[in-house]
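Here is an idea for our session: we take a single protein and study its fold together. Which protein we use is up to you, so please pick one and set it down. Once you have written the record down, we can walk along the chain together:
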Amino acid sequence: MSEKLTLTELFSLFGRTADDTRWVGSADSEEYLAVVTYLVQRSNHR
């Protein structure tokens, strides 16, 4: 079974809180790449 990444976990990767939902739409390409890299590494460690 796959583990889901919560919004709280996603925000914590970038030092933000759940109150910063506006940030998701304005994340830059480096931030999105960091999320993808994190998810790939996380799935490979299982």
Observations:
- The helical segments are 7-13, 29-44.
- DSSP finds two helices and no strands in the chain.
